[in-house]
Amino acid sequence: MATRQTPLTCNGHTRPVVDLAFSPVTSDGYFLISACKDGKPMLRVGQTGDWIGTFDGHKGAVWAARLNHTATRAATGSADFTAKIWDAIAGTEMYSFAHKHIVRTVEFSKDASKLATGSAEKKIRLFDLQRPEAEPVIFDGLTATARVAMFVNNDSMLLTAAEDSCIRLWDLRTRQEERVIPLDASATSVEVSADGQIMTVAHGHSISFFNMQTFEKIKSITHTSPLYSASLHGSKTKFVAGGNDFYLHVYDYETLREIETHKGHHGPVHCVRFSPDGELYASGSEDGTVRLWQTDVGKEYGLWKFTTSSGSSSSTAPVDA
């Protein structure tokens, strides 16, 4: 019995989609935010891709976008040298933090009291959102543009990745670099599992997994073309990766065997993430679209309906969301 994957296509952006992130599940469901070079980050219903609103205020490409755990605040980083905090319910700008170069990454702490940003200045800034007028704490020591900055170990440490092919761990209390993890190519995507146990890193042609307690590499796969992003399913049974070849590649986590390949985008895939309930994953591409894909093809979920015809099964969904 043949099974076909039909993704939901979320239109609205006019230039490449370079970053996306899901919120955790809230009392109102979960949400998806996307960053795009058109300078207009968008908020959508996570389960369906339905457009909720656009955060309008940046004057340059938006490289990063995140939601806090309750999906009530959004953070964005832009080529206009600012990071902004938004009221995700009203859609209004709350704070704008000036930088001296392009802001490439933003991340809330778990309690949303702090914001970490990384920029082409080769610096990480830590803003206190309870005192937004205060000067940020600055972490020096990077030797290239920061691509990733995130809070780990219950917000006691900061994890950073830059274009110098290194991942660094910083103690937030002492502000000292605690560990350096060298890679064979710069990390373009870093994800830490919801239970804080496994780090998934896309670098060059490879996807590598690290133990977050020891920071030792667990396993790695290498692909024939560059892979820009990867996400591990919450069950740790599979992971998805996307990159330069326009495809979404799904692998068995234990065996590292490729089990699914899906084509839908018309350009390189810059970002991919599983939803917090694990039922779907989202991808963002050079083609200017966000697409939602089912984890279990044929299962009724969101806008997908299961149909059977002539002995074959397929998952059908509207082409636009």
Q: Can you tell me the residue ranges where pLDDT is under 50 for at least 5 consecutive residues?
A: 308-316
- The CA-CA distance between the termini, in Å, is 28 Å
What is the class in the CATH system?
Mainly Beta
Q: Radius of gyration from the CA trace? A: 19 Å
GO molecular function: RNA binding
Organism: Capsaspora owczarzaki (strain ATCC 30864)
Protein name: Serine-threonine kinase receptor-associated protein
Keywords: mRNA processing, mRNA splicing, Repeat, WD repeat
In short:
InterPro entries: WD40/YVTN_repeat-like_dom_sf, WD40_PAC1, WD40_repeat_CS, WD40_repeat_dom_sf, WD40_rpt. This protein has 321 residues and is mainly beta. It is built from no helices and 31 strands.
Question: What characteristics describe this protein?
Answer:
321 residues, mainly beta, Methylamine Dehydrogenase, Chain H, four-stranded antiparallel sheet, 0% helix, 53% strand, WD repeat, repeat, WD40/YVTN_repeat-like_dom_sf, mRNA processing, WD40_repeat_CS
Topology (SSEs and partners):
Blueprint: E1 3-4, E2 8-10, E3 17-22, E4 31-36, E5 42-45, E6 51-54, E7 62-67, E8 73-78, E9 82-87, E10 93-98, E11 103-108, E12 114-119, E13 124-128, E14 137-139, E15 146-152, E16 157-162, E17 166-171, E18 177-182, E19 187-192, E20 198-203, E21 206-211, E22 217-222, E23 227-232, E24 238-243, E25 247-252, E26 258-263, E27 269-274, E28 280-285, E29 290-294, E30 305-309, E31 312-316
Parallel strand pairs: 1-31
Antiparallel strand pairs: 2-29, 3-4, 4-5, 5-6, 7-8, 8-9, 9-10, 11-12, 12-13, 13-14, 15-16, 16-17, 17-18, 19-20, 20-21, 21-22, 23-24, 24-25, 25-26, 27-28, 28-29, 30-31
GO biological process, one term: spliceosomal snRNP assembly
InterPro entries: WD40/YVTN_repeat-like_dom_sf, WD40_PAC1, WD40_repeat_CS, WD40_repeat_dom_sf, WD40_rpt
WD repeats: 55-96, 96-137, 139-180, 262-303
